[in-house]
Amino acid sequence: MDALCVTIRAYTASFRPPGMSAGYHPTLPLPPLSTVYGLIAAAVGRDVDPSRVWLGYRFCSEAKARDMEKIILFSEKGATWDAKTGQISSMPIQREFLVNPVLRVYVPPLEELWQAFRCPRFPLVLGRSQDVAYVDRIERVELEPTTEGEAEGILLPFPCPGVGSLVYNLPTFLPTHPPRRPLAVKPFQMVVRRQPVRYEGGLLYRVHDMVVPIYTIERLR
Questions:
Q1: What pTM was computed for the model?
Q2: Mean pLDDT of the chain
């Protein structure tokens, strides 16, 4: 199967786990499907139809670090005001981030996507607005169907027995316009370290010496 492989790099990345609030912001080790679809939407300039644009990706980073930053506190009416200090209310938080991340995205070889990643409509970010990213390379690759192989930095549907991983409940696709309701929320296994994986049912494809899962609309629902 023909595909475009888009290599995206950044200095930092951060993907907050669902349900985490103020105080301490950890990061997931790799992005959810909805985040990568949002990245594609930023490049194209609008939502992409997941029934037309299937998706696969691999993610890696060199290290995880922690930073201290100040956030402004908001209410339904906007930023809150601290009468004692005469300033807008704020608080310090600790935030984890990933260092020198690399995201390889596999999408259909459509001219629209090729042009969008060559000249993105909106800035590309790997998480928060300060995690600005750039397209390093775009190439055509051949994806070969398989049921097993070595994998690292991928997302697998839960359960996948015998695979060492972290399990999270994650959205599969989120539109960019309100109301932002997820297409579905499902449990996934985050395969961080390189290891052999096996999965039946036409999910895995081999590219070079690694395997990557390809998610179609049927697997997103």
A1: 0.92
A2: 93
